Amino acid sequence: MTERSSSYVCEACGWVYDPALGDPPLDDPNGGLAPGTPWPEVPDDWICPVCGAGKDAFEPIGATHAAAAPAPHPVQAPLVVVGSGLAGYGLVKELRRRDPALPLVVITADGGEVYTKPMLSTALARHQTPDGLVQKGAAELAAELDLDIHTRTRVTAIDPGARSLTLETATGGGTLVYDRLILALGADPRVFPAPGSDAVPIATVNDLDDYRTWRGRLQSGDRVLLIGAGLIGCEFANDLAAAGHPVALVDPAPWPLARLLPQALGAMLAEALTGIGATPCLGRSVAKYLPDGAGFLAELSDGTRAPFDQALSAVGLAPRTRLAAQAGLKVGAGILTDRLLCTSDPAIYALGDCAETPAGPLPFIAPLLAQARALAATLTGTPTPLVLPALPVVVKTPALPLVVCPPRPGAEGTWEIDSAPGEATALFRAPDGTPLGFALAGARTSQQHALAKDMPDLLPPMETPTAAAPLEAGRRFECATCGYVYDPALGDPDGGIAPGTAWEDVPDDWMCPVCGAGKADFAALG
Fold first, then answer.
1. 88 vs 507, higher pLDDT
2. Contact at 8 Å (CB) between 207 and 151?
3. Displacement of CA 233 from its chain's centroid (Å)
4. pTM across the whole model
């Protein structure tokens, strides 16, 4: 295969550039990279449509990386990774590059297919089926990386003393001994409950299995109730509306992406989504569900009603911590780690959406892959503390392309906005003028790399690569209505509650940022 016909994979997120498909903008088939554009003709300033990485982050599929010849491994228990998402598979790829002989096992509850998860929210507009999103199967990856992958297998318990896992499959179970254990468990999607929800098929999409179920349920022209106007909710709203589905986008916040965008850019996004057929129902939440002939009605908190045939919940993610907590590991909003990604047990590590590093939970692609690189180095003998520069996030809403690099929660400052029709630049500055974050819309998204250089690091380099003590968990409280967890370490900056605010100091008139329930509806965890 020649360089002109070869496919190239993004080392940051796993998205594959196929010259036969190109990368035409979803809203302008005549622009961008037309189908048939070979890799040498892709402009040097082109960026990955999924994560925003530059062209230099891509490598030809099948490329190999030379690794120093390791000393032969004595017979030993394997290094076990639980989870086959971008975090788990990203880690084993990095490990294999560093040590071709390290015994590796991956345990996954799903089919173990290799796919780019962020593409789930754009697949309709790209005319991709669930099977079409799969880049390779688990068996192919296992052979390629010389490791064992146990698919459709759940870990039901960890015994840190014995360094063993209890496994469960459809046909039985067993135990597996590990040398070191890495938890890449991901997160569970939250579902907003309301009276009548038991009679409504409310879907969530968090992996390929979920997406197969969702696409199998979705019929041409179905009206969709989309609950949650955060990053994933807005991406799905754009994808569904562009594919011809009437979408009602419901969120208690007054504008979409309220935790990432200033109001002016949020209003631009709401207008853009309206322009492609979505109906933003903002500043409202679902009060109850009602039957409506062959479909359903969602009665909103202001009394208005939204008819729908299918419902999709995108109100946030809850890191999977139960398994770690039951094993006695320290957990907070996620599984607590130090900067070496080590948990409170020295033989157990965590990364990805399930982990809470000293930078806090970061459910985005770029931090996840930075974690994989640092942890692979640590596990192969070079202790490497996690370093995170400012990491812009690409929001896949072709109706209004966006890149966000939000300030840290609780940061003091103001937004400075410069806008023109269909585009905008927003800079968040501290009182002394220091830039702390930005948001870009439309054509100005091309400025992301230049602006990111001026932003503060999420985790700056350490002077010495010594492990820090894992963070202590504060006393957390859970909303009985929607399951949102208030973590004092994180606070609720968008609701005026600074990080570090104890529950007792939260005002009595504060409301849950997800569902609007009152403080009295929360109960202490544990």
1. 88
2. no
3. 12
4. 0.80
